[in-house]
Amino acid sequence: MNKNGFTLLELIFTIAILATVLAAAAPSFHGLMARNKVERTVTELKGLFIAAKSEAVMRNKEVYLHTVGLTDTKTYTDDWCVIATTEPTANSCTTNDNTLYIVDGHSLSGLNIKRHTDYASIKIDSMNGHPKFNAGEGIIDWLTFEKESGKAVTMKMHMFGRLYR
Questions:
Q1: Which is deepest, 96, 115, 119, 141, by most CB within 10 Å?
Q2: DSSP reduced 3-state for 122
Q3: How many helices and strands (H and E) does the chain possess?
Q4: Confidence at residue 54, expressed as pLDDT on a 0 to 100 scale
Q5: What are phi and psi of 119, to 5 degrees?
Q6: Considering only the top CATH level, what class is 8-164?
Q7: Which of 79, 80, 76 has the alpha carbon at shortest distance from 147?
Q8: Closest C-alpha among 99, 111, 107 to residue 145
Q9: Cα separation of 8 and 67, whole Å?
Q10: End-to-end CA distance of the chain
Q11: How far apart are CA 154 and CA 161, in angstroms?
């Protein structure tokens, strides 16, 4: 007898094995998504910082990085932004003619995030593109964020204009 296709029993076994494999893979997929969110945040912040330094030197005008909606305590919120502007103050994430670049927390949702205690705003020098810190500080922990508890990433800023983690 020549038979083509699957029997009902073979189909049930195949679906059961596939369901078991998918159930085992789901937790690691969640971790992958969390790591990708953190990596995307790092990339966006580095891009904003590099562009702000370039704009300061190119325009020969001081540029300011403002962390709007962030405090020095870790907070789970999407209502934040880091904005690069030529204005010394920024109180909201809305853009205007002086806004150069913005990283919006709504596009990077689900992060537990905080900023440095003393640096809600950082001035970038127009001559060399270096951030201006308080006297004696060479490296600051600018932003700290995490998607999963216990896996925090800290963006460190060097006084000579390097941003790294």
A1: 115
A2: strand
A3: 1, 10
A4: 96
A5: -125, 75
A6: alpha beta
A7: 76
A8: 111
A9: 60
A10: 67
A11: 16
